[in-house]
Amino acid sequence: QKEVEQDPGPLSVPEGAIVSLNCTYSNSAFQYFMWYRQYSRKGPELLMYTYSSGNKEDGRFTAQVDKSSKYISLFIRDSQPSDSATYLCAMSAVAAGNKLTFGGGTRVLVKP
Amino acid sequence: DTGVSQDPRHKITKRGQNVTFRCDPISEHNRLYWYRQTLGQGPEFLTYFQNEAQLEKSRLLSNRFSAERPKGSFSTLEIQRTEQGDSAMYLCASSVVPSGANVLTFGAGSRLTVL
Question: How many angstroms separate the CA atoms of B73 and B50, rounded?
């Protein structure tokens, strides 16, 4: 079983809808939780990150971390066709050199 | 600074040949990472450097793979005697030594196709 699990999708939503993405993980040592966006044939780009449990908001994006459940979420409000991409969660632990462990990614399609 | 650069963007080779990929990180970044990504999967960690020192290698990195960062700037990833299973996107990323979150900046990747 992988350390970080993510539903591969695809997740198809109409423009303007809320996109809800999530990941589960097994390693309780993870401290930093990140969301990356990857367009086709491009490298991942960081959207946002959180430390430990709690919520963080950045524009249309909200990240939530529940360490007790080992569950993280990303919400995208007022989704746009340009949000169509693969969304990757990633996690790291300082004790493990802070290298990122990624989920498999969820493909999102926002239809106009 | 134009970000992390990778070359070549796409390499097609025959099984058994050697290939080398190059990564130029963001100039002030002292950490450099190599990841491998296959279709429909997330990136998998291969190895990373802090300056010129290779600090960790994944068990995914067989003895056919070697990575170097000779002067603490650019890095190369060489795959010897390529196999069809090596076909993947090889991603390079760089960061500064983290005092908190390790924010990696990725390049666009080098896609390897082994025939």
Answer: 10
| CB-CB neighbours of B90 under 10 Å | 24
What number of CA atoms fall less than 13 Å from residue B115's CA on the CB side? 4
| Beta-carbon contacts of residue B4 (< 8 Å; ≥ 6 apart) | A43, B23, B24, B25, B26, B92, B93, B94, B105, B106, B107
Q: How many CB pairs under 8 A join A and B?
A: 64
pLDDT digits (tens, 9 = 90+) for A76-102: 999 999 999 999 999 998 887 788 999
| pLDDT tens for each residue of A58-75 | 999 999 999 999 999 999
Q: Does B91 touch chain A (CB under 8 A)?
A: yes
Residue B91 amino acid letter: L
Interface residue B4 vs chain A (CB under 8 A): yes
How far apart (Å, rounded) are the C-alpha atoms in residues A91 and B4?
21
Contacts of A59 (CB under 8 A, 6+ apart): none
A88 touches B at CB < 8 Å: yes
Which amino acid, A8?
P
Antiparallel, parallel or unpaired: β B110-114 and B10-13: parallel
Tokens of B11: 């390499």
